[in-house]
Automatic annotation (TrEMBL):
It catalyses: (2R)-3-phosphoglycerate + NAD(+) = 3-phosphooxypyruvate + NADH + H(+); (R)-2-hydroxyglutarate + NAD(+) = 2-oxoglutarate + NADH + H(+). It holds the Pfam family 2-Hacid_dh. Residues 315-388 form the ACT domain. Keywords: NAD, Oxidoreductase. It comes from Lactiplantibacillus fabifermentans DSM 21115. Pathway: Amino-acid biosynthesis; L-serine biosynthesis; L-serine from 3-phospho-D-glycerate: step 1/3. The lineage of its organism: Bacteria, Bacillati, Bacillota, Bacilli, Lactobacillales. Belongs to the D-isomer specific 2-hydroxyacid dehydrogenase family. The keyword Oxidoreductase applies. This is D-3-phosphoglycerate dehydrogenase.
Length: 389
């Protein structure tokens, strides 16, 4: 029986994904955490914790160094809220182009008897533009950016995409009509609207700063629905004062953005739909079950992709440091135990490596000896023995 501990409110559909071989919140020594936004940086990880799955995209709330040292695999649910974010960005594009917020504020404050006549007289103040034929620069063409780019094409916009890290698989999801820019400044130089959809990392911190904003046309409208810190807010406010940015829309508020007429802050609702919460919770639960039952890894944050059909009777999985001679040390321990390897695979990601070894014949004494021997290798973080059912 596997033990799962949940944090935050997890969609019931996700919890119901777990089979009868899983118990929820019944143990202080869980095999897995299923989380959303809880901050785990000051959290003491139990030694039993084999996997953390976040029902969402960002993993800034998970201390990866601690997880690595504990031998804990970390997963997120990429793409689970992509459609939700896409729809919000599309809505804001329409709102921005038609001055809908200013028009609604006007109507809310002019409620006198002659409002209809007054509105008729003043409505030219809110004349907008159409999105048809306008240019949208999409910075980041992953799960969200590709959806935004394709949807903007269907609205008749010219779309220019920029993503130096675009994978071959992701490229298949992008319509061929999306123009590709080789530099960020080239992508934004003729844009009426710029929207940012990149993960947060050292490389993307302040990705949109003063130099990039200076490359944009006057009166551009900027959208940040990726992560806080991707856009330099101080540079944005300076550009608003200079008349370069007409309006800034973001899901990530800071005190300096408060009470700014040309800034609209939404309260981190980009991925907050009922459907997205269900998608994230369901995907996270499935990821946990796959990892605990098979040891296979797809798109983990801290482990390499490694998927091996589980056909043998037994499987050892080893998380270890990515240092020389680890495979040799591991196989030597199996030879010392008199075990023949049926299947073996190894891959590395950064400082960590992951090894899967399948064996057909294994008795209790041999399994205990081998588990202890592998755990005694200094660079090993976690050893698991899985039984094929």
């Amino acid at each position: 029986m596997y033990q799962i501990k949940t944090f935050n409110a997890i969609a019931p559909a996700g919890l119901n994904t777990f089979t009868n071989n899983y118990q929820l919140n019944q143990s202080d020594q869980p095999d897995a955490y299923l989380i959303r936004s809880v901050d785990l940086h000051d959290h003491q990880f139990p030694t039993s914790l084999k996997v953390i799955a976040r029902a969402g995209a960002g993993v800034n709330n998970i201390p990866l160094d601690t997880a690595n040292a504990n031998g804990t695999a970390v997963f997120n649910t990429p793409g689970s809220n992509a459609n939700a974010v896409k729809e919000l960005v599309l809505a804001l594009l329409v709102i921005a182009s038609r001055n809908l917020m200013a028009a609604a504020d006007y109507s809310a404050t002019h409620t006198e008897a002659d409002v209809s006549q007054r509105t008729e007289h003043d409505k030219t103040k809110f004349n907008g533009t159409e999105l048809l034929g306008k240019t949208l620069a999409v910075v980041g063409l992953g799960h969200v950016g590709s959806l935004v780019a394709n949807a903007a094409l269907s609205l008749g916009m010219n779309v220019i995409g920029y993503d130096p890290y675009l994978s071959a698989d992701a490229a298949w999801n992008i319509a061929k009509q999306v123009q590709r820019a080789t530099t960020l400044k080239m992508a934004v130089k003729n844009a009426d609207y710029v929207t940012v959809h990149v993960p947060k990392s050292e490389d993307t911190l302040n990705l949109i700063g003063a130099p990039e904003i200076t490359a944009m046309p006057k009166d551009v409208q900027l959208f940040n629905y990726s992560r806080g810190g991707i856009v330099d807010n101080a540079a944005v406010l300076a550009a608003i004062d200079d008349g370069r940015i007409a309006h800034y829309y973001t899901d990530f508020g800071e005190p300096q953005l408060a009470d700014q007429a040309a800034v609209t802050v939404t309260p981190h609702i980009g991925g907050s739909t009922i459907e997205a919460e269900v998608n994230g919770a369901t995907q996270a639960a499935q990821t946990i079950m796959t990892y605990l039952e098979t040891g296979n890894v797809t798109a983990a944050i801290n482990l390499p992709n490694l998927t091996v059909p589980f056909n043998a009777a037994y499987r050892f999985t080893i998380i270890h440091e990515n240092v020389p001679n680890m495979v040799g040390q591991i196989t030597t321990k199996l030879a010392d135990a008199g075990l023949n390897i049926a299947t073996m695979a190894n891959a590395a990601k950064g400082h960590l490596a992951y090894t899967i070894i399948d064996v057909d014949d294994l008795d209790h004494d041999s399994s205990q000896y081998l588990t202890d021997a592998l755990n005694k290798i200094p660079a090993v973080a976690r050893v698991r023995l899985l039984i094929h059912h």
